[in-house]
């Protein structure tokens, strides 16, 4: 420690009082012994004085021994304290009750080289605006509790000031810098948009470099910047700068703890006089978006960045992708004030080149209507995101491959299983070929299940979500799970007594749970216990894990825990990748966990894994709580079976580019008595419908075809035939419509592969 006499810590001041008392005692003993010799007192008085004097000498010797022991103990404590403070990486000070510094460690001398002050308040004035108040507050708490600490926000960042009360009335102070980690990896100082952070009382807590350059100096309150208060978010406000008044567009973000963020951009005075929110000539790419996703306005720089001529009738999801969850959910949460105020890194939907943007989405009120302001920043060159986007591109490529393979296989399986159904109609159980046909049919169904795994992994399967109580779902599944785990493994369930509902596809959720339980069973070849625990958790703040952020709110968690071999740390981050398995060759396909990951993400949830080698593995699933709105009970529909049209009463226009699928579907519908018109493309279908005398009851059409796709030609045909019913079929999932496509009225979706009965029953239900 560096002090005024190079002392490590303040002197405990125990040696001087002990020596004074010791000297007084010895002096008194000498005086009493001498008096017995100098004066002619009786012999018994002299002997008494000598006895008392010798007693005082013995007492003085004991006092000297005790003082020496105390001094040694205090010296050891001083050495320990000195060694601890000397090697502390944070600046440390030892000060008395008045704040006078007695010693400082090398870190403090290095940090405060230009502040060699006698008092702690004077030294910390280079860091804190008003250190005396903070020091007094902390010192008062330290006297009562023994220690205290406080985080202080400064213009250079966060500083943590802590104090511990020492023996003798001294205080040990530590000054620690807290490094702020932004979720996007970028500090607010580097944002090119002027930014202010404002407190409840209008005090300016932070200004980035762009804001200081625009205003001309660092200000402490909003009234020094804006002429009229309160600030009008989403509108043009007049600002006072070093170069005179300017007009600026201001967007306000509400943060936690009563703090707001203000983004402002200078505009022309002509624009300010109009009082509107014209984005055309702003120096930063801007978009104004409705909560439903439609782009309302866009400026020139944003058009240039996105590589489009205009954004008429386009949604934000068509212009960029890569959010990891539905774009509509992000927009709705931001509009409702539920989404965390952080930037998202997305990929623009450009064909000429690959461009990544950092999108900051803000909520604003314009003429009483909620709108969203999207600020774009070109993030293509950010090296810190390289690894994340490489992984994202790899997974997207595999997902597209899986989706494409699934589409082609679904067309093949539709033709195989369909023609098998046609053959089964002509054979009964007594025929010689009946068993072979059943084998073909069952294996086609097994192939369809494998294809559905590919679609689940690529998150392109068709989900049938419903409101579920996990207790009921697991109760129905318990019998099957007990059969799966066998006799060596014990399966136990533990439920939260206050369970909330979720919205998910029950069949897919059961597949995920069975996958996890089977993996847990395989990890315990000698037996053990598998625990499934459900719990309702409320997150006060978002949690970040493995580059994923779980927003704050209410969640239902499902944990699957085993006592197995565990997973190596270097393999833990790869378990959700397709075709990756920790099992021996021939024992695993590597699709189980990747399929589970796709199902959970498509449901809107999250899945995480924790494992300790040799101690077991824990999978944690997060599902958003379903807040069902109270609605009136639906009245039971009266039975109308006797008035429903029968099979064969209707004309069907079948549009399918795959000839085997078209042949099967046509024969299946004709067997049920329908009149079938065939077309191999959308253009042929429209030419067929040019005949005004032709009456068509149902369109059965593929979604993805060469040339015009299914939804496009159907919308064109419905202009002249608005009452016609529609059945869309596709080897892709229902998401093949695309986010930009509106819903087609009177339409249903039938995924491939479908059976003869599924096709005919769907057409029959549409005619009803």
UniProtKB/TrEMBL annotation:
What are the entry keywords? Membrane, Phosphoprotein, Transmembrane, Transmembrane helix
Q: Do you know which SUPFAM superfamilies this protein is assigned to?
A: ATPase domain of HSP90 chaperone/DNA topoisomerase II/histidine kinase, CheY-like, Homodimeric domain of signal transducing histidine kinase
Name of one Pfam family that matches? Response_reg
4-aspartylphosphate modification sites are 702
According to the record, the segments passing through the membrane are: 20-39, 45-65
Give EC number(s), comma-separated: 2.7.13.3
Which InterPro entries does its entry note?
CheY-like_superfamily, HATPase_C_sf, HATPase_dom, His_kinase_dom, HisK_dim/P_dom, HisK_dim/P_sf, Sig_transdc_His_kin-like_C, Sig_transdc_resp-reg_receiver
Response regulatory domain span: 651-767
Q: Which PANTHER family match?
A: SENSOR HISTIDINE KINASE (PTHR43065), TWO-COMPONENT SENSOR PPRA (PTHR43065:SF42)
Q: What is this protein called?
A: histidine kinase
Q: Which organism is it from?
A: Parasedimentitalea maritima
